[in-house]
Design a protein that fits this description.
single chain; three-stranded mixed sheet; elongated
Length: 173
Amino acid sequence: MQERIRDCVLQIIADSVGTRGEGAYLIDVKVKGNERNRKIEIVVDADDGIRIHQCAYISRRIRERVEGDEELLDLIGENFDLVVSSPGLGEAIILPRQYLRHVGKFMRVTFTAENGDRVELNGHLLDVSLTEEGRSWIVIMPEKNKKKGHQPIIEGIRLYLDQVVRAVPDAEI
């Protein structure tokens, strides 16, 4: 059922060129509950940040599509809640494409170092390179030590995306 809903959402997004939903892309689909009390959660984003009118547009199109498809409606059940939202602050990045809209922002990154250790790094995302060929990477500028006194010169750290275990955009404190 989740794959069927995912396909439906992908088709709606593909059909949204030139509409209020244009520019959105799918991040995740979760289906919870049973036939009597189903909840469908859809997370979407856009390269310049998803807008509320885009979420509303996608939500209306999904509901129309489900209610107009007897087979899908039987699969989901007539009583369902539909939530279309953006990834919130503090939610981990799932798709490489999401890094692009977080350039310049504070992030908490867990990655696997060359020696196999897991390392946590807090800093600002400086650069992103997403490639079809080769390895995609990000550059994080580690946050400075908050102690006063002589500060060593800190350079950005390049991490290949296959090293990144978890990356979470966060509010800078």
